[in-house]
Amino acid sequence: PGIPAGQPGAVEVDARDQAIARSLTRSLRPSDWQQWMVALSRWRTGRALEFVPSTIESIRSELSQQETGEHHIQRRAIWLETLDSLQQISTSDDPTPPTDAQIVVLSAWLAALDEAAAAEVVDGSTWRSGDFTLFFRYLDDAPQVSDQNVATTGVVPLLQQPDVYRTRRVRVVGTVARCERMTASENPFGITAYWQLWLRPSDGADRPLVGILADVPPVVASVGPTATETEGPPVVMVGRYLKRLAYRSQQGADVAPVVVGRLLTAPAPVTPLAKATETEDTGALLWVVLLAIVVGFSVAVIAMWRTGVTARRSRELRAAHQQPPGPILEQLGERTPEECE
Fold first, then answer.
1. Does pTM surpass 0.90?
2. If you write DSSP's letter for every residue of 91-140 in order, what string do you get?
3. How far apart are CA 260 and CA 267, in angstroms?
């Protein structure tokens, strides 16, 4: 079976296959690259193949002119066999998956095509025509991009080392500040629309990040194209780094890294049942708070009443034990010291 695309290192590619792939790619015009990307990636990932690139015969001719050493002849035979299989499955109702040997060929050629397309990307600019070969290739392949062994990358490294990260898989984390559905230009991948997200990175960097996705959940789409949310829906995204996109901020001209891929996690939508439960929970909490206030006030009143009753009874007891003075004490109290002598 084929392996998911976008997993560099998952297939060990022979140096001879790399050389063949680069040679074939150089023989093609940039306008033909996308057709081969569609055919190779869809076969490798088990998707329906609707057409065979129109330059397949010129590729056969190019292969026949490759080096004639024994090892190269063996590799060339596998490449020609792969082309034959590709042509057959395009007309088959039950296409067969590529063999292990063919997967190596597909992987080598896709890597060479990605490498050539990456060289056409105009970094640090607004969207240019040279960006869209790799743009749509990544967007078409996004559902198959693996999140295994991908470290979370911050905005600053993507901005400072664009050549290092280009074509590599990255994981980014942030909150959605703005979300806009865009109409796609004509392309062989059949993509008609996509979503452009502006994310606030969770690493604390005060620089935005642009995410390009084929689809987003309603809770993300609801943010809208004119929003500037400071605490929008949190998301985790995996994809491949494309370029630094130029845009105008409040400080003037600036750039933001662009990652094309898919969401790994997004906030779950709030269902009517969840809203009702939340309302019930809020009402119950208010009743608990109100009851606590009433109980507390009642306890205070009872305590004050008991204190008053206790104090009154204490005064009554003290008064009961104080006897009036006898006649002798009263007389002594009325006589002067001289009279006592």
1. no
2. T-SSPPPPPHHHHHHHHHHHHHHHHHHHTT--TTBS--GGGHHHHHHHHH
3. 20
With beta carbons less than 8 A apart as the criterion, state whether 165 and 209 touch.
Answer: no
Whether 256 contacts 210, CB under 8 Å: yes
Query: Mean pLDDT over residues 45-58, rounded?
Result: 90
Q: How far is the C-alpha of 213 from the C-alpha of 239, rounded, in Å?
A: 9
Nearest to 63, CA basis, from 82, 78, 76, 75: 76
Antiparallel, parallel or unpaired: β 252-265 and 209-213: parallel
> What is the DSSP pairing of strand 234-249 with strand 209-213?
unpaired
Using DSSP, how many helices (H) and how many strands (E) does the chain show?
12, 5
Residues counted in the chain? 341
Picking from 91, 104, 90, 116, the residue whose alpha carbon sits closest to that of residue 32 is 116
Q: How many Å apart are CA 330 and CA 320, to the nearest integer?
A: 20
Question: What's the pLDDT tens digit per position in 287-324?
Answer: 554 666 655 666 565 666 666 656 566 565 555 555 44
Residue 40 has pLDDT above 60, yes or no: yes
Check residues 273 and 118 and name the one with the higher pLDDT.
Answer: 118
Give residues with Cβ within 8 angstroms of 121, minimum separation 6. Answer: 130, 131, 134, 166, 242, 243
Reading the block at residue 72, the tokens are 């190269």
